[in-house]
Amino acid sequence: MIWIGNVLVSRGEGGVYGERMIGEARVWDPYRSKLSALYHAGTGVDLAPGMRVLYLGAAHGTTVSHVADYVDVVYAVEFAPRPVQDLLEVARRRKNVIPIMADVRSPEAYAPAVEPVDLVYQDVAQPDQAAIAIKNSVFLRPGGNLILMLKTRSVDVGKEPGEVFSETTGLLAAAGFNALESVWLAPYYRDHAAIVCKNARPVMSRE
Amino acid sequence: MKSYWFGDIEGGLCTPFVAGPAAAAARIRSLVTSMDWYDPPDWQQAVACGVCRDRAEYLSILQKVCIAGAEEAVKEQYAQKDVELLQMTRTLDEMDTVINILSERVADWYMIRHPAFSRKYRRTPAHVLIKNVALRDRRGALGEVARGIARLGEARSVLAQEVSARACDVMPNTSALIGGLVAARLLSHAGGLRQLARLPGSSIQVLGARTALFAHLRAHAPAPKHGILFQHRRVHNAPRPFRGRVARVLAGKVAIAARLDFYRGRAVPEFLERAQARIDSAGTGNTVP
């Protein structure tokens, strides 16, 4: 990761969403991107130039654009048409963003387009976040990483965030993910946790 | 034979698919059902196939295909009848809020100008006061703002009529049951006709009562009896002890009506008649007719 002092940046064409620039570098604000918050609050997974990333819940392409600055290719999946309009604009200006409008609950819809990836990054406001991650792990190569941004309040508002968190990590562990790190994203985000896992299954799974 | 988005491979022989991004996007859609669940596409195979020279070109072609596919998908979504109604309804509700806030503000301002003025005992609704101010203050900012609000109000009534008419077209059964405006508001809170059609009656009953519902789920507040449905005359005219019951019965019928609207798309008189009778009887405390 590229840090200038204690500011996280990425190198690429700026002006995507009015982000601040330090010279040629785009400031990656932890208050606007949960992935940046993870790099500030914990360790995360180092993004490397050769990496292939599957990004679930791409939204308006803000974080996608930063990830794309670091890696080889980002397969960005988003379901809602309005954000997809913005995501498409980001894709048109970046060679390595492959936008896909599909429901992350039905990965078979985009399976024909997506290569095996080194990292699955998930940030979706759904109640079944662990199930979605497990479903999409077919794309993850053995030893690859999963970063799950857990919105505990989307899972169940009535439950304590800590309880939702331990349920989710339990489900992931049962599905063959080894937890590497889990961080609460305070003070950047409330009731959000980042879970970083390693895919411990030996072969690409075929469901 | 194995099929990929860039071509078909059979016995080591590859037939490339060359028909432009839009056709390739359609092909990806068709591959979904026919293919063995996950058979990863490989850019080197695509190179061997003669589709591209290197990885950069592979990604560039794939990106064009996916952009075309996503553009088409967005277009399709927006072509659905309920999508524009959703935005119209949300605009209408937002306009109501804005007009109310601005009117109150202007009324306060007007009272400073006229220290002897009070709205007590006058029964002057804010919009009438705004019209008076707009007429009286011909030159100053106050009058200009008041005229702006009055114009907004006119735009609002035009919009309300259109929302109502569009709702009757998009959701004929629900609109017949609870009126176009209330139906449109339910739609806007559910997020679309498909979403509304999939909601259980109990959820429809409390649509729009978010604060109360979450207070109930989180703490020990009583459960809300009604949300948007309160705007229906059968609910707000019912005597207090019956309101919850009427709202529940109405919500159940609305759930059926929304499904008829989504799956059949036309009015079903025999359902409407029976539903209406059931709702009417709920308000009187009588049992099923």
How far apart are the first and last residues' alpha carbons of chain B, in Å? 63 Å
Element order of chain B: H for helix, E for strand = EEEHHHHHHHHHHHHHH
Low-pLDDT runs of 5+ residues of chain A are none
Ranges of chain B where pLDDT stays below 50 over 5 or more residues in a row are none
Major sheet strand order of chain B: 1-2-3
Structural class of chain A: alpha/beta
What is the first-to-last residue Cα distance of chain A?
34 Å
Topology:
The complex is a heterodimer of chains A (207) and B (289).
Chain A: E1 2-4, E2 7-11, E3 21-22, E4 25-27, H1 34-41, E5 52-56, H2 62-70, E6 73-78, H3 81-93, E7 97-101, E8 117-122, H4 129-136, E9 140-151, H5 152-155, H6 161-174, E10 177-184, E11 192-199
Chain B: E1 2-4, E2 7-10, E3 13-16, H1 20-34, H2 43-48, H3 55-79, H4 81-113, H5 126-136, H6 141-170, H7 172-178, H8 180-190, H9 193-198, H10 201-205, H11 210-218, H12 233-236, H13 240-263, H14 269-284
Antiparallel strand pairs in B: 1-2, 2-3
Helix pairs in contact in B: 1-3, 4-5, 4-6, 4-8, 5-6, 6-7, 6-8, 7-8, 7-13, 13-14
